[in-house]
Amino acid sequence: xxxxxxxxxxxxxxxxxxxxxxxxxxxxxxxxxxxxxxxxxxxxxxxxxxxxxxxxxxxxxxxxxxxxxxxxxxxxxxxxxxxxxxxxxxxxxxxxxxxxxxxxxxxxxxxxxxxxxxxxxxxxxxxxxxxxxxxxxxxxxxxxxxxxxxxxxxxxxxxxxxxxxxxxxxxxxxxxxxxxxxxxxxxxxxxxxxxxxxxxxxxxxxxxxxxxxxxxxxxxxxxxxxxxxxxxxxxxxxxxxxxxxxxxxxxxxxxxxxxxxxxxxxxxxxxxxxxxxxxxxxxxxxxxxxxx
Length: 292
Hints:
The chain has 11 helices and 13 strands. The protein is α/β, with parallel strands linked by helices.
């Protein structure tokens, strides 16, 4: 293995160019990342996670029809003025808290849907020659990036968040093979993308959070196609793992896959029940629906 110098993680990549076909017709004109969990867009929740972990620069890989994401992370002078004139100080302050600092966001285009690996590669010029995080915007995993950065401080190299699934579901995901185990973290000795049923090396899935070294871009530059005819990030990580260490982090928490209808609904229920001003009344209404 080639030693990897440990640099601070400052930048995060958010691949937001997906079409969101599983949510049609809702996503015909509205990006799936802008669908709301309670009263915040999904992408805002994910950016919150990164910001709370200490990420300073937010890089969005967008596509056609996604300009509203850029608008969301910008000032809205007309709205701010209207809120100020109406004395809605609470709402105005909330918008100000969510606004990234000037120069802290970057947007680049993925012109064609060629896979997650290609989307990450599209951010290469903005990331530059430093390690970076990747957060998949469909996955709500509160606190996960903070846990990953703590693992990175211990191990350096490349870190992948993982979660357990029933063995019967492993064929639906990227799966890691476990080497030397440290408890919360472990050495990754192999990865496979959507293995055939009964062949997975573990039941630990790659769950949508990564810390990667910049050498991944050299591998992705070859644009080799994998599963589904797309440029797969997992394939590039397998090659990088031959040269650099990879560690898995067992995420302590629950991930909600808002890219699925069930996961999206579950996220709204879970987040809604936690809200101080909504939780009690929401619980009562759910009870009524369930006949309780």
